[in-house]
Design a protein that fits this description.
The longest helix is centred in the first third of the chain and has 10 residues. By secondary structure, the protein is mainly beta. β35 and β36 form a beta hairpin. It has two helices and 39 strands. The radius of gyration is 23 Å and the shape is globular.
């Protein structure tokens, strides 16, 4: 796959991917949930509690979703953030927590270390998550840089994950299927869709064959998800960023396939957001089917949404609509009582213990000698630069929509001259509030105008637009973000000397809603040097709150 495919499939329109169900959890023959049966079932569920869409109002794009026993798992794209490919866990398809990451480190070249090059908008794209019952193992599969495909495995979703193999064929936007006979197949491609068969141990390609070419009337199709349901093979495909199609074969994984439209230009459940698309299918223990897609909702990113699915008698999926649109809410899935509550994606982190919680991801790989967790996060300067986009060890956290606030308690007593530390709203156009130390004097600043061009090279390192005296050795920094989609939205910054009373610093920062960076805005903790290494800051508390 060449970079021209990136331009075609990724930049001409928004890209993504989604779910899969392994052979062990497929329905028995004749177990399609027909539209008539679904209507009767939904009538009986009229009193069931409802869930709202999006089910996760954070940036988790290209979702792949599976069920293993009574637990649901999902994987998502993370591009240049490390660790990559988060694994989410749920017991009801509605409430989710982050369990871990399938790709512990982006060891795909120096650019992912911010070492002489950059990996922005590369790295972990639409990939696939599967579970193989025969060896009780999770599999993650994804291509990197159009060069090769990597497979990672783990016996528990939270890890540890390790690399199983590297395959020379780059399986673009791939979907991994564990067939009912335990054979591993991969569907992949952009407009021209192929199927590969892997060796029994999953380490090598045995065969690959083109199985379908999208008609010109449809255009680009990508984001493959591969299923075997009721003896038939399905490849679920997206038309970015406004459609979803599905291929079906009754003759085996290599086809021939026929195509049907699942949705096109469907109104989504997020005001100002795009059309739900890509995503995957999953079946509950009770036999009900659901489709988890995502909605383009910049400046925040791409948000997962969930809708029930029924099947026609001849085996085609139908998304259940509300007044002709993807519903803003539906009756909650009927599942067994969850064994516990999942860990919220908002709230307080005091960095207890000795490792970061899975909610955190670094901007590129960190220098692990320059940070530590021990009942508080210590960030030592890892890069000498005046460019935040080139500074290592910037730690990021997704923003909760539609609006949320991050508050950080920062100890800056160990900063050195030339150091810059603080809290940013990070994307290809960024701003921050933080502490500057120059000539032995420490002060607070709000800096705006950090920018990149379309090739993700820095075009602006920022301009200080407001400042204030820095209190003692400790300060509270706050960033508030409005990520409602449909327009550029404001982000604001403030500070406190006591953690209670906050003072606004600087004008509102405009967070753009262009999609081309793919990832949405994030909160980011940073500390970098402009003169010499040796300084440090300590973060003792981070709180993500909603109104």
């Amino acid at each position: 796959m060449s970079c021209s495919h990136q331009s075609w499939g990724r930049r001409r329109a928004l890209a993504a991917a989604t779910g899969l169900v392994t052979g062990a959890f497929l329905p028995p023959a004749g177990a399609f949930r027909t539209a008539a049966a679904a209507s009767a079932r939904e009538a009986n569920l009229a009193a069931a509690p409802a869930y709202p869409n999006p089910v996760i109002w954070q940036d988790f794009a290209d979702v792949d979703v599976i069920r293993v026993g009574a637990t649901y798992y999902a994987s998502a794209s993370t591009m240049h953030y490390s660790p990559g490919a988060p694994v989410l866990r749920s017991y009801d398809l509605v409430n989710w927590e982050i369990a871990g990451h399938s790709v512990p480190v982006l060891d795909f070249g120096a650019k992912y270390d911010l070492n002489g090059a950059r990996g922005y908008v590369r790295g972990i794209w639409a990939s696939s998550l599967a579970y193989r019952p025969s060896n009780a193992t999770f599999y993650w599969l994804g291509q990197i840089d159009f060069a090769r495909t990597y497979i990672y495995t783990a016996t528990a979703a939270e890890g540890p994950w390790s690399r199983l193999t590297t395959i020379s064929t780059p399986y673009y936007d791939a979907g991994l299927l564990v067939d009912s006979d335990d054979t591993l197949y991969v569907a992949y491609g952009n407009t021209t869709i192929s199927v590969a068969q892997l060796s029994p141990d999953g380490r090598n390609q045995v065969r690959t064959q083109q199985v379908f070419t999208a008609p010109s009337s449809v255009g680009t199709l990508e984001g493959s998800r591969f299923y075997k349901i009721n003896g038939q093979y399905y490849i679920f495909l997206t038309r970015p960023a406004n459609g979803q199609y599905i291929l079906k074969s009754s003759s085996g994984p290599f086809g021939p396939y026929t195509m049907r439209q699942v949705l096109l230009d469907l109104r989504g459940p997020i005001a100002g957001g795009g059309v739900p698309h890509q995503g995957g299918l999953v079946q509950t223990q009770s036999g009900a089917w659901y489709y988890m897609a995502f909605v383009d909702a910049y400046p925040g990113g791409r948000m997962p949404v969930l809708a029930p699915v029924t099947w026609t008698p001849d085996g085609w999926p139908v998304v259940q609509l509300v007044n002709g649109a993807w519903g803003a809410s539906y009756p909650s899935p009927v599942v067994p009582t969850p064994p516990r509550q999942v860990t919220p994606m908002t709230g307080v982190d005091t960095f207890d213990g000795t490792s970061l919680k899975p909610r955190w991801e670094w901007n590129h790989n960190p220098d692990n000698t320059k940070w530590s967790v021990s009942n508080g996060l210590t960030l030592r300067t890892a890069t000498v630069t005046n460019d935040l986009y080139g500074a290592r060890n910037t730690l990021t956290h997704r923003i909760q929509g539609p609006t949320s606030t991050a508050t950080v308690q920062l100890d800056h007593a160990a900063m050195r001259d030339g150091d810059r530390a603080g809290l940013a709203l990070l994307r290809d156009s960024s701003a921050w509030i933080g502490v500057k130390r120059d000539g032995g004097v420490t002060r607070l600043a709000m800096v705006s105008g950090l920018t990149m061009d379309g090739n993700w090279n820095t075009t602006g390192t920022g301009t200080e637009v407001a400042s204030a005296a820095a209190p003692g050795g400790r300060v509270w920094l706050r960033a508030s973000a409005d990520i409602r989609p449909g327009a550029a939205r404001p982000g604001t910054f403030s500070y406190s000397t006591d953690g209670t009373s906050f003072t606004r610093l600087g004008p509102a920062f405009s967070m753009g809603n262009d999609w081309r960076f793919f990832m949405g805005y994030r909160f980011a903790l940073f500390n970098h040097a402009t003169q010499a290494l040796g300084g440090a800051v300590r973060v003792t508390r981070f709180e993500l709150s909603t109104p």
